[in-house]
Structures are given as C-alpha cells and as structure tokens.
Amino acid sequence: MDIADRTLTVDVIAALTYWPGIIWGGQENPPDPVDLTVLPPFFDEVLQELPWWNRDWRISHVEPGVPLEIGTGHHGHPSPFTEVSVPGAVGPAGGESLPFVAKVGFAGDRLIRFHAKVGEVVLAPAVTPAGRLEPHPFARVLTGLMDLRGIPVRTMARETARSMSTIHMLRSGRHNPDPLLTREIARVLGMSEADVRVIAGLDDGSSEERRTGDGPCSGG
Hints:
The protein is an alpha+beta fold. It contains 7 helices and 6 strands, in the order H-H-E-E-E-E-E-E-H-H-H-H-H. It has 2 domains: 10-123, no CATH class; 138-200, Orthogonal Bundle (434 Repressor (Amino-terminal Domain)), CATH 1.10.260. GO terms for molecular function: DNA binding.
C-alpha cells in the first residue's frame, strides 16, 4: 500500500484529532464537535488503492479516534508525528458489516503510515516487494539485539553451533526461530529463554510457532 506524499485536508485532520473521550493539555474539554463524515471517504480512497480490495466495500461508520501518540513537545518528550486509532465498520452495500479500525500516523498535513484491521485481518504496508515472502518479525529484533551487544554473525553461529548462513537467514527473516535455537540464542544474548521465546512469537512450552491472522483480506 503506497501512501507516500499523500496530503491530508484540513477537515480530515480535524476529524482525526477530535478526541472527546481524552483529556490532555492541548485540547479543550469537551472539544467542539467536528464533522466525522469526512473520514469514511478518506479511508475508502486509501483502501481502494489496494489492487485486491473489493470495490463494492465501503466504510459505513466511524467513531471518534483515540490518540496513540501526539505530535507535540508536551512534558519535554517531543514526538515527530501523531498516530490515531479510529474504530468503525466496513462492508458491502446492503450486506453484513465487519468491525473496522484504522491506525493513522501523520505529521502536519502529511500521511506517514496507515494500517487497517477488517474483522480479524490486519492490513499493513508490506516490507518486501510484491511476490516476495514477508520476513519473520523476529529478524529485526534479533538483528538489533546482536548489534547492540556487538555480537557478529560469526560469533553467534559458533556459539549456537549453527552455520553462518542460518544466522544470516534469521537476521533477514527468511528462517523461522525454533525453540531449541531460541534457547541457544538467548544464552548468547545473555537473556532469559522465556523472554526470547516471547519475542520470537513462540508459545510457552510449545514447539510450534504462534501464528497470527495478519494476511491479506479479499473484502468478501
């Protein structure tokens, strides 16, 4: 989903930053009502850019959003952008609707990122090009932990009795972590096995990887 260089209108920004259920220092309480009807067409426009999205589906309902992060220097902790979670419903005209929630990140009037969840399916921008498998999420965490500790691939391979190619594949997300390898990696990282298992998405006491429903949605 390509969202680069998308500009948000003043009305959309006002709707995304309308948080009547939230009390914070930069907003009147309660805030003046705004027009939320501008959000369904905005979400429809973004979703329609997905080549596999069902063109008959529309956002039928939205509610005021909840801020996940606020772009401000309040309390001395500046954030470069604002991210909001907006719940609602989506479905075909005259058909059964599914719960919908959008996570919208923006800086000023520029959309930075957009994630959506339809029912139990998460829609998010891909990490790799079309036609290529998405990397296992453990890859980024393992790479960061190794780099922070100054552990080179050669050392990790030697200490875990694995080939360097296996460690490279783990770091690139092309190889799934298994319980035995996770135990050995935890020892080299100086972390508990339980912590690394959680990071790797492995069920406690299970030999199988935890799977989550984060694949594409056909829209019905």
